[in-house]
Specification:
Blueprint lengths: L2 E6 L1 H11 L5 E6 L6 H10 L5 H10 L4 H8 L12 H13 L2 H11 L5 E4 L6 E6 L4 E3 L1 H6 L7 E7 L6 H8 L3 E4 L4 H9 L4 H7 L3 E5 L14 H12 L6 E5 L5 H6 L17 E4 L24 H13 L2
Parallel strand pairs: 1-2, 1-7, 2-3, 7-8, 8-9, 9-10
Antiparallel strand pairs: 4-5, 4-6
Length: 322
């Protein structure tokens, strides 16, 4: 059985895992621990717990439990003192308090939700993401970085404070994998925070696994404005230390004009400028389903998504080729 490891955070990880779990593979998700927005941020501040939100999404994606159970874990309270909190975030935070360990909490919640695979925090250190812009303004936390429209003007550094050690289980998964996938997601708040954890980039350089990048559908205005596929590869190389990717998956289908107009204030579609690169796999990866933000969500959610099954089919072609 082939061993597949997915690295990322947020919705991107959910999309990749949700499709891959239907296949006969050994599947693991390594999840960013830099999230500090919305329900997650409040729980971090008030309870002193590690961020549950991205981990919860991965657990739901991998769950083979009933639809009711998955809906329960994603349910967000609409009023009262719990407004904006998801039930799954509260449960995971409570489990961390009861077990005394976030790793244990994730394992226990995985059993409750009957997950197919493993969910592993990239670090169990409490960290905050920071970015120093070119104009010397400091952006404090993932949420503040996520909302910034100044990043594409240049930044001096991005780092996690305090400097964290990688979860040894995460490194082991990368080193023993057959395929490591970097999922789509916001470049500076979902992907790069994983690479800033001590040992992760080194493992990606040294593992014998094949590596695949799933490129975003859309750029983010003020952060990755007018980025092309080569720009994403350049930025990831900067933090990994070399270009490690054997496969680059790019959506080839046209984004509908009405959605382009909706995105005018948020960003533009990512253009494939590496059509002659043999590593690039261009395929229809776009979901026909339009995802709306939940009114109780404290964070804005994008409307466009990769199609989980289309993406999984292309990734399994890669897996079946070696």
């Amino acid at each position: 059985m082939k061993k597949i490891v997915v690295i990322g955070g947020g919705t991107g990880n959910f999309t990749v895992l949700n499709g891959l779990k239907k296949h006969n593979i050994d599947l693991s998700a390594i999840v960013s621990m830099a999230d500090d927005g919305g329900s997650t941020g409040i729980l971090r501040d008030e309870l002193g717990v590690l961020p549950p939100g991205d981990v919860r999404q991965c657990l739901v994606a991998l769950s083979d439990s009933s639809r009711l159970m998955r809906s329960l874990m994603n349910y967000r309270f609409e009023n009262g003192s719990l407004q904006g909190h998801s039930f799954g975030n509260l449960l995971l935070s409570a489990l961390e308090k009861v077990t005394g360990s976030f790793d244990r909490a994730v394992e226990e919640m995985g059993r409750i939700m009957v997950i197919k695979g493993k969910v592993i925090p990239v670090t169990t250190n409490k960290v905050h993401l920071k970015m120093l812009l070119q104009n010397n303004r400091m952006l404090e936390g993932e949420h503040e970085i996520d909302l910034s429209t100044e990043i594409d003007k240049g930044f001096q550094s991005i780092y996690l404070e305090p400097f964290p050690e990688a979860n040894s289980r995460a490194i082991d998964q990368i080193m023993t994998a057959d395929l490591v996938i970097l999922s789509p997601g916001d470049l500076y708040t979902s992907l790069i925070p994983n690479l800033l954890v001590d040992g992760v980039s080194k493992a990606l350089r040294e593992t014998g696994a094949k590596k695949a990048l799933v490129v975003n559908l859309m750029n983010k205005l003020g952060q990755t404005t007018q980025f092309k596929v080569s720009d994403y590869l350049r930025e990831l190389k900067r933090f990994i230390g070399k270009d490690v990717f054997d496969y680059v998956l790019v959506n080839s289908s046209k984004v509908p004009e009405d959605l382009i107009k909706l995105y005018e204030q948020e960003g533009d579609s990512v253009q494939n400028d590496l059509k002659s690169d043999s590593r690039v796999i261009a395929a229809d990866l776009l979901s026909s389903e339009i995802v709306q933000s939940q009114k109780t969500d404290a964070l804005k959610r994008s409307l466009l998504r990769h199609d989980s099954q289309k993406l999984a089919n292309e990734l399994m072609k890669i897996v079946d080729s070696f």
